[in-house]
Specification:
73% helix, 177 residues, mainly alpha
């Protein structure tokens, strides 16, 4: 159990750092939007700003998923869980974590495969900058892989009988990470 607790803390720190990276991408998104507005006001055209803002938004969204899951911030079946108790509640929690794990692993597999195919084919964006698409897709793939790891982690923690933030009401407590 000490090993599980150590891995649990390590992974929660990793998810937190992915959340920090998502926050940095949100800041980059805001700066790109401001640059786009200012450049238009000045009559200058800076190619690719809109595309890069979109890539930053996608990367931020996917990198934040695991931390948000562990913090209990995703839409969940809380109303249903509050209506049931005992073994039924545990069964519903197990089903939800199991289905979430299957879906997250499939999403990660699909996005990694898509990124690999884009890399093999040398796919480029349709914007003026013609960026290789595997570059921004890597952020999405990485975020999806981290989410899949997070779901597997949460499922193992739940099966071990420990209180898992993804299925409890409170989420990660202050100072726990």
């Amino acid at each position: 159990m000490r090993i599980l607790a150590a891995v649990d803390r390590l992974l929660d720190r990793f998810y937190l750092w992915c959340g920090y990276a998502a926050a940095a991408l949100l800041l980059a998104l805001a700066l790109l939007i401001i640059a786009s507005i200012v450049s238009r006001l000045l009559g200058a055209y800076v190619p690719g700003l809109t595309e890069y803002a979109g890539y930053a938004m996608g990367g931020a969204s996917f990198l934040a998923l695991a931390h948000t899951l562990r913090a209990g911030g995703h839409i969940r079946v809380g109303i249903l869980l509050n209506a049931v108790h005992g073994k039924v509640r545990r069964g519903v929690q197990l089903w939800c974590l199991g289905m979430g794990t299957v879906l997250a692993v499939y999403l990660a597999w699909f996005l990694v495969r898509m990124t690999h195919v884009s890399w093999l084919l040398g796919d480029r964006s349709e914007g003026d900058d013609a960026l290789l698409l595997w570059i921004p897709q890597t952020l999405l793939s990485f975020g999806a892989v981290v989410l899949a790891i997070c779901f597997v982690h949460s499922l193992i923690v739940f099966l071990a009988g420990r209180d898992d933030p993804t299925v409890s009401a409170g989420g990660i407590a202050e100072g726990e990470v």
